[in-house]
């Protein structure tokens, strides 16, 4: 169990609630001064259970903060050309401030082509190459929602990152790579020395044990064990996987990439799963959409 006297839980659920309340107040002020209602759209292809859940959370969150939302569902048999045409329609729709295409997509559709087809000004997921490039150059950009959420957690809990050694496990374009850029930028949080590890990294344990801040985004349940973690490290667990468990009410439990009980004994700060990074991801998407509505990134 976690020792309350030594380990601080980074409560993404509570912080998400506070940020959404702040966004709702900002939306009210914006609308009362003549601004339009922020409008977020989502495209969902197929019937993947996890994707359905994520999109439903996003739609519900829009309602909570006073946004308008549109969900466009398509059968998994939709062709790539047809989907690109739907994206073009959203690009041209002046009432829609930002939109996302829920990943993963069916194998016959290129995710790269889809991401490139989204207008960067409406790319509130922060995946378009133009936004990634702007992020790298420390220019105003839509930041990918999960890394954005992690940065908010670090800031809200006043975790020192300047001069610290940060190790990131996983090099995906959605989490690991943008996270490495954010942590190395001349910002607060930021100014860390960063090592990005992946499947070809040798002697991984010796690297992770040096980390003042360890960010894990592998999708491998309980991969990180206590012997891989430095005493009093900050541990951010991005992973969330359904693991079968007949004793659980739903027949499964949600597990992170970190073996929570034993790692929490050593960590100064740690995110729980669920309730850590996940809630902040949806909140960050809302923040990006409000920025899109107010034209704060692309003037």
Describe the fold and architecture.
By secondary structure, the protein is an alpha/beta fold. The protein folds into two domains: 34-119, Leucine Dehydrogenase, chain A, domain 1 (Rossmann fold, 3-Layer(aba) Sandwich); 145-278, Rossmann fold (3-Layer(aba) Sandwich), CATH 3.40.50.720. Helices cover 38% and strands 16% of the residues. It has helices at residues 12-32, 49-65, 80-92, 111-117, 129-136, 145-156, 176-184, 204-208, 260-263, 277-293, and strands at residues 8-9, 39-45, 68-74, 98-101, 165-169, 193-197, 213-216, 234-237, 241-244, 252-255, 269-270. The strands form three sheets. A six-stranded parallel β-sheet has the order 1-11-8-7-5-6. Helix 1 (12-32) runs parallel beside helix 10, helix 2 (49-65) packs across helix 10 and helix 6 (145-156) packs across helix 10. The longest helix has 21 residues, at 12-32. It is globular and about 50 Å long. It starts with 7 loop residues before the first strand and ends in a 6-residue tail after the last helix.
Q: Can you tag this structure with a few keywords?
A:
299 residues, alpha/beta, Rossmann fold, 2 domains, 6-stranded parallel sheet, 3-stranded parallel sheet, 10 helices
């Amino acid at each position: 169990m976690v020792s309350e006297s030594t380990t601080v839980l980074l409560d993404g659920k509570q912080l998400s609630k506070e940020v959404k309340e702040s966004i709702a107040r900002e939306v009210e002020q914006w609308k009362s001064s003549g601004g339009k209602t922020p409008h977020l759209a989502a495209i969902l292809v197929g019937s993947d259970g996890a994707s359905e859940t994520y999109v439903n959370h996003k739609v519900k969150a829009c309602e909570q903060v006073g946004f308008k939302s549109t969900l466009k569902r398509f059968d998994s048999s939709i062709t790539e050309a047809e989907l690109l045409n739907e994206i073009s329609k959203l690009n041209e729709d002046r009432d829609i401030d930002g939109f996302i295409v829920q990943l993963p997509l069916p194998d016959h559709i290129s995710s790269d082509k889809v991401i490139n087809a989204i207008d960067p000004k409406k790319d509130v997921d922060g995946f378009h190459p133009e936004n990634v490039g702007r992020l790298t150059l420390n220019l105003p950009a839509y930041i990918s929602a999960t890394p954005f959420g992690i940065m908010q957690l670090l800031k809200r809990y006043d975790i020192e990152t300047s001069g610290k050694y940060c190790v990131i496990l996983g090099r995906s374009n959605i989490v690991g790579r943008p996270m490495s850029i954010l942590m190395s930028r001349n910002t607060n949080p930021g100014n860390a020395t960063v090592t990005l590890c992946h499947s070809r990294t040798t002697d991984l344990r010796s690297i992770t044990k040096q980390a003042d801040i360890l960010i894990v985004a592998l999708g491998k349940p309980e991969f990180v064990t206590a012997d891989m973690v430095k005493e009093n490290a900050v541990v951010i667990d991005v992973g969330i996987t359904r693991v079968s468990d007949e004793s659980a009410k739903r027949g499964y439990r949600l597990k992170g990439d970190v073996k929570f009980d034993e790692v929490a004994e050593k960590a100064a700060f740690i995110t729980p799963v669920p309730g850590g990074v996940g809630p902040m991801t949806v909140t960050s998407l809302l923040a990006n959409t409000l920025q899109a509505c107010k034209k704060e990134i692309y003037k």
